[in-house]
Design goal:
Structural class: alpha+beta
CATH topology: Nuclear Transport Factor 2, Chain: A
Distance between the termini: 68 Å
Number of strands: 6
Oligomer: single chain
Number of helices: 3
Number of domains: 1
CATH architecture: Roll
Shape: globular
Length: 153
């Protein structure tokens, strides 16, 4: 009887681990797609998408160390202080935690943008943390990036 109970407990634990893995795998796919959509929204100035994508308590740390909250960051795009001509995703890795409710993203992008009217291209490594809000869906709560040296040809 004890062996049967042990087997049943192991079976239940195995299925719950599998279910968690499925939730995490689904979260990884969702967040990867949302990351690409967010980059596109930054380029196209899709403010409605950005309003929904960023959490109200967003901390957005630029590669120069300057920080914005949600309102400041979106306003910087509206005012033309942060303009994105193109964002090329070179690497994108999403890891899911907390039963598919939290995602940590790290990646490598090249941004062609205009900051305060000056054109520039930046090669960035970045980290993003997203939390799945029960009402709002996935929300970016943290962005942090660091400039990298351009790859040598």
């Amino acid at each position: 009887m004890k062996k049967l109970l042990l087997f049943a407990a192991l079976l239940v634990l195995g299925f719950s681990a599998l279910a968690q893995t499925k939730k995490d795998m689904a979260a990884v796919k969702e967040v990867e797609a949302l990351e690409r959509q967010r980059f596109e929204a930054q380029v196209k100035k899709n403010y409605a998408f950005l309003q929904n994508a960023f959490s109200d308590d967003l901390v957005y740390t630029h590669s120069d160390g300057h920080q914005n909250n949600k309102t400041e960051y979106i306003q910087s795009i509206r005012d033309g202080k942060s303009q994105y001509g193109k964002i090329d995703v070179e690497a994108l890795n999403v890891r899911s935690y907390n039963d598919g409710q939290t995602a940590v993203v790290n990646g490598l992008i090249t941004i062609t943008n205009t900051v305060d009217g000056q054109p520039s291209a930046s090669h960035l490594k970045y980290v993003v943390v997203q939390i799945k809000d029960p009402k709002k869906g996935w929300q970016v709560v943290l962005w942090q990036s660091q400039k990298q040296q351009p790859a040598k040809s």
